[in-house]
Structures are given as structure tokens and as C-alpha cells.
Amino acid sequence: MAGSDHFWPSTPFQTCPIADRLFMCSIPAMRRSRNLIAAVAVAFATALLSGCTSPISDPGKLRAIESEARSLMVDYPVSSPSGWIDISKRRWPPKMASLKPEAVAVHDWGIDIMMKPGLDGGYGYAIAQSQKDLPMPAKCYSELRQGVFWHIPC
């Protein structure tokens, strides 16, 4: 179309006629916006699913959680063949509940406060008499205070 002022820009530096500017010239900008939104969404999802789980460090709160765990072990002695008892959410002690765990269970070795479950052990707190009583390998735990451990996937 010789002499026509309508054309599809072949480079981002060419300009579009005013009539086409709203649609044709905005396509590369829309793609950039869509790609940026997708990249931000992926970054947010990755952060949410992978690295946002970490233990508390407040000594007073850790002491209170340990005390609540010891009470649960007395109130719910494990005698079932499975070796543990799941504690219903409405029965969670207040400091434990404030952690917003996925699950709390009394085991024959101690208490498991599961923050983020996973096939590899997930993330959470374990309250036991000593590290040798814990069910996963020692490399999976860090001791936050005497008898209170944080476990990671391993």
C-alpha cells in the first residue's frame, strides 16, 4: 500500500499512526506487562512455598510452648498402636495455637508441632527430652532451647 500512512511497526522505535496506536502499538507493551506480572507472581509463589517458614526465637514464648507440650504429654499419654495421638485444633494450648501450625501430635518420643508438612519431614517444632529421642536424623534439627527443636526437611 504505497502512500498509506498505516503500517505495522517492524521495530519498537517506529511509530504507529494515531488510529492504530491504541491497539497495534500497544501489543509489545501488553506483552511486557504480562511478562512482568507473571514474573512477579512466580517469585511470590516461590517465596511463599519455600523460604518463609522459620522458627521463633523469643525465649519466653519457647519456654511457654515447652511447658504446654509437657502438659499435653501428661493429658494425652500415647497408648495407641500407631505411636501418636493427633490433637484437635480446638484443644491446642494458646501459645502453640498462636504459632498457627498445620497439626499438633503427641508421640511416644514427645510433641510434634507441624508448621509446614512435607514428604521429607516438613518444617516444625519438636519437643523431646533430648535430641537422641527425636525420630529424624540429627542433621534435620536445630535446638532452639533445651528440649525444643526446630526441624527442617531432610
User: Number of DSSP strands?
Assistant: 6
Query: Nearest-angstrom radius of gyration?
Result: 28 Å
- The sequence of SSEs as H and E is HHHEHEEEEE
Helix content: 25-40%
- How much of the residues is beta strand, in percent? 15-25%
Largest sheet at a glance? 6 strands, antiparallel
Task: Give the overall pLDDT as a whole number.
Answer: 81
Characterize the overall form.
elongated
Category by helix and strand content? alpha+beta
Write the layout of secondary structure elements.
Blueprint: H1 18-21, H2 27-51, H3 59-75, E1 84-87, H4 94-98, E2 103-107, E3 110-116, E4 123-128, E5 141-145, E6 148-151
Antiparallel strand pairs: 1-2, 2-3, 3-4, 4-6, 5-6
Structure description:
The chain is built from 4 helices and 6 strands, in the order αααβαβββββ. It has 154 residues and is an alpha+beta fold. Strand 3 and strand 4 (123-128) form a beta hairpin. It has a 6-stranded antiparallel beta sheet with strand order 1-2-3-4-6-5, covered by helices on one side. The longest helix has 25 residues, at 27-51.
Provide a compact summary of the structure.
Helix content is 33%, strand content 20%. It is of the alpha+beta class and 154 residues long.
List keywords for this structure.
154 residues; alpha+beta; six-stranded antiparallel β-sheet; 4 helices
